[in-house]
Amino acid sequence: MRLRRNSLGHRQAGSQERWLISYADFITLLFAFFVVMYALSSVSEGKFRVLGDSLGTAFGNNKVKPLESIARPPAIELSGRKVTKPPDPQVRQREEMRGMAQDLLKVLGKLARDGKVSVTQTNWGISVEINASVLFDSGQAQLRSESRNALRQVASVLASTAQRIQVEGYTDNAPISTGQFPSNWELSAARASSVVRLFIENGVAEPRLSVIGYGPNRPANPNDTSESRARNRRVIVMILTEVPGKGVDIPFGASANPAR
Fold first, then answer.
1. Rounded distance, CA 16 to CA 123, Å?
2. Are 133 and 233 in contact (CB under 8 A)?
3. DSSP-derived 3-state class of residue 203
4. Which of 77, 204, 250, 252 could, after both became Cys, cross-link 199 (CB 3.0–4.6 A)?
């Protein structure tokens, strides 16, 4: 009787301790899960492949997903379109300025072909150089009637843009002294101002405009011949870029030639 009791007690004790086996298995799996999660928190391709091969061998499945499918999520799409990096501001502005320069060449085509106007794109914007003989009579700052139409077309191109515009006046080194223009400084500034007034009258916003009179300074050619002096009498309209960048000047037309 005592033997049967001991045997029954032993079986009961054994059955009560069986949960320890399941508990130990659960703890082991839980530990393995956290080890895997820790390893994936700092993934390197070599470690992942070693881990994947080990797990594949342990569970009898060698088809482990590649690293790229876990570490690199798919491209995000908004409204059915992939999100792309916005264009570089310098590149975008350079293309806009190129288009503007081509539009200016179209409206000034005849003068450019005759060598009286040149349009050039530089690192700082667009330079429209107009020989003074096209715009003014000798020693005067009032625009000639035939030049107004060409400048109105230039204004129509500039009115729809937002860039700042700087109008520069230049003369040769021949002295002038009249009641209206005591020196070449006043003459060059007055000529640039005449161009600016016409731009304002034709829709170009006044705050965008500025005037500079250089007088006989900064000549394009030495003032040693009549042709060189005529070449130095000019007005330059500068359309200034908002994002200046490095690059090579891009010519859009022949250089302005002296008046004949």
1. 87
2. yes
3. coil
4. 204
CA atoms within 13 A on the CB side of 92: 7
CATH 3.90.1300.10 corresponds to the domain 89-251: no
Q: Which residue has the tokens 């515009």?
A: 165
The token pair at 207 is: 């705050």
CB 118 within 8 A of CB 255: yes
Distance CA 187, CA 173 (A): 12
CA 219 → CA 192, 200, 223, 229, distances in Å? Answer: 16, 28, 8, 9
Helices and strands, counts by H and E, the chain = 10, 8
How far is the C-alpha of 126 from the C-alpha of 106, rounded, in Å? 14
Rama region for 174: left / alpha / beta (φ>0; ψ in -120 to 50; rest): beta
Element (H, E) at 165: strand 164-170
Sequence-distant (≥ 6) Cβ neighbours of residue 148 within 8 angstroms = 198
The domain ranges of the chain are 2-80, 89-251
Report yes or no on whether pTM surpasses 0.70: no
Q: Which residue ranges in the chain fall short of pLDDT 50?
A: 1, 3, 64-74, 76, 247-249, 254-256, 258-260
What is d(CA 187, CA 92) in angstroms, rounded to the nearest whole number? 38
